Amino acid sequence: MVKVLIADKMDKQAEEIFRRNGVEFDIKTGLSPEELAGIVGDYDGIACRSSAKVTADVIKAAGKVKVIGRAGIGVDTIDVPAATAAGIVVMNTPFGNSITTAEHAVAMMMSLARQIPQASVSTHAGKWEKSKFMGVELYAKVLGLIGCGNIGAIVANRALGLGMKVIAYDPFLTAERAEELGVEQVDLDQLYAQADFITIHVPKTEKTNKMIDKGALAKMKKGVRIINCARGGLIVEADLKEALDSGHVAGAALDVFEVEPATENILFGHPNVICTPHLGASTSEAQVNVAIQVAEQMSDFLLKGAVVNAVNMPSISAEDAPKLKPYMGLSTQVGRLAGQIVESGIKAIEISYTGSVTQVNTKPLTATLLAAVLADMSEHVNLVNAPEIAKSKKISVTDRYNEDTSEWLAAIGVKITCEDGVHEVMGTLFAGREPRIVQIESVPIEAALSEHMLFIRNEDKPGMIGALGTVLAAANCNIADFRLGRVASGKTAVALVSIDSVLSDDVFEKVNSIPQIKQARRLSF
User: Fold this and answer.
1) 225, 231, 380, 423: which one is catalytic?
2) Domain range 3-94+286-311, CATH class
3) Which residue among 278, 336, 380, 436 is the active-site one?
4) CATH architecture of 449-525
5) How far apart are CA 296 and CA 168, in angstroms?
């Protein structure tokens, strides 16, 4: 008999599902990590929300635990690397609260437009300050979406129903998908210049962290109103306060903050700021949906071995696991590299398998590579939902097989068709286990990937390597490895440069200004 610990308050329908499936459970909520570590060894699974902290110490004590189920999207309260190292599957419920979060963003936008919270407080105080709260209409205003994935698309639909014009910045949004949604694609500077309201729907990554800073705010239309129900840290809060104080930004509505729980914040008390305590997913319908989903997923895994919505492993049978492990690593590296050199909306992804890899179960390899390509497009993409996310974005995904081993004993490649052209990456396994990149953009190259790298497309002319070395040396950035590839002398060449630290924006700008360099990208693995 398997047994699950329900470690957070959850809708009772989760209990009914466990009971119906013959899964025993205990309900023990409000435990500290130390208390949780003291009892977790008695259970096969942990069902949680955002209060229970499943730390590395908890996982270390979890001798029997096979699965951790998060009723919701975010897994930041779970030490996923520690769980992965311990062989514990971490599952979430990525689509259970999309509508709820989108509706909260729309509610915040309406509240900003009509100053509803401020007017409510004033009226409760018996002041009747009707002339003080002069609002603006949403009708015919321009709404700018930063990110137009699952939640952003729902916001767009609601805003169009209100008679707004919707523009969107999303490097991964295709023209076909934009047309289907009824939104206009723009670049980020165009969005800043045109939007009366801006709402953010992107994951927090190295690229998006602190993306709304003093410089971005200065580019925005005077009187803009900003809504963030996505992730804290996307906005530099001190810069936003300065823009609000000057009147350049008319108002802001925030459901998320850089530090949470946010018991104090520089923006608290500002007359033009509306704050809520991370309520994006807090509706009764969403809580029921995610509770049902997590109970069903955990029951299926514990009783049948089915893996659904795992964030740290592919859907693989026990028989396939040993054979697929090295290819999984290669698929991830090929996909992450390809996904980071793409600069526009993706239309199609073609994955190629060559040689002996065609003889194994490639379905989990395709899911792994696809999830790696899409990793920067959605914060909740994983090996199970990656195909569905690609489908929702109108991205065609195909596999191609070539059993010929004359060139490669085994190789995995990806060709990504984008609005700006085609990008290709191929990799193989050295000694049957070590991933190596062997081709980029049809240019042969041999390189191992490291944590911090630069990808460079350049003219094959003297001076590039020296100029790049000079720029990096001046920034005290050490080069760990430098790999070059070219088709022919004097033609286009590519380089993968391993560096010991992340490049700052200033240094990266200097790299891009080197005359021979056509394109440079900062990579992280």
Assistant:
1) 231
2) alpha beta
3) 278
4) 2-Layer Sandwich (3.30)
5) 36
